[in-house]
């Protein structure tokens, strides 16, 4: 009788152990499933967070760049420059120097006419000026001051000279009648304007 009882107990214990083992295995499998889902969920949340951060940063960068471009619009404010050769640059000038060549009178002095062909001479009414010119090409030239009717003003003219390097100086007092200076030999090319302004 005792032997039968011990066999029975072993069987019961074995069966119970097998059941517990199966229950544990089932629990691990079920636990693993939700764990994986949670991990995936976590990954998705992280990825979503990254996207939001990138979008936010992009927006901030774009706004900053736009602001900088708008700030640079003030460059056009520097466009106001005073034109060279205005009457203000002729203040204190009492001598004008020219080179005489067949193609035209070439400005030498003062600075506003330097390098210009047939430059406009800006004179102040009543002021005395010396116009000095050099024969720069060995051709016959002279200088004459004309009025609106192409007539000589108050006999302001010089003799014709032909020697290259020779110079002449014409001294005059500026009057409102003066409108042009010319070479009588080359009227078609050697002719420039005179602008006489009233004195202060």
UniProtKB/TrEMBL annotation:
Signal peptide residues on this chain, from the entry's feature table: none
Annotated keywords: Copper, Metal-binding
UniProt GO molecular function: copper ion binding; electron transfer activity
Superkingdom classification of source: Archaea
Start and end residues of each Blue (type 1) copper domain: 130-197
Biased composition (Polar residues): 65-79
Name by which UniProt lists this protein: Plastocyanin/azurin family copper-binding protein
Positions of region (Disordered): 26-92
Keyword Transcription part of the UniProt annotation: no
Gene3D superfamilies for this protein: Cupredoxins - blue copper proteins
Compositional bias of kind Low complexity: 36-46
């Amino acid at each position: 009788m005792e032997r039968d009882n011990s066999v029975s107990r072993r069987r019961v214990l074995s069966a119970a152990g097998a059941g517990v083992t199966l229950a544990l295995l089932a629990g691990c499998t079920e636990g693993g499933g939700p764990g994986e889902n949670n991990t995936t969920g976590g990954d998705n949340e992280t990825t979503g967070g990254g996207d939001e951060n990138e979008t936010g940063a992009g927006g901030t960068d774009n706004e900053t760049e736009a602001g900088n471009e708008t700030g640079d619009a003030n460059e056009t404010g520097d466009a106001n420059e005073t034109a060279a050769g205005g009457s203000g640059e002729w203040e204190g000038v009492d001598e004008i120097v020219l080179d005489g060549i067949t193609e035209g009178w070439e400005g030498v002095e003062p600075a506003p006419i330097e390098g210009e062909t047939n430059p406009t001479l800006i004179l102040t009414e009543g002021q005395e000026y010396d116009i000095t010119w050099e024969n720069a090409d060995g051709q016959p030239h002279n200088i004459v001051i004309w009025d609106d009717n192409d007539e000589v003003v108050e006999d302001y003219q010089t003799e014709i000279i032909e020697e290259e390097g020779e110079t002449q100086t014409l001294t005059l007092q500026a009057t409102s009648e003066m409108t042009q200076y010319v070479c009588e030999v080359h009227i078609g090319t050697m002719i420039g304007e005179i602008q006489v302004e009233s004195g202060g």
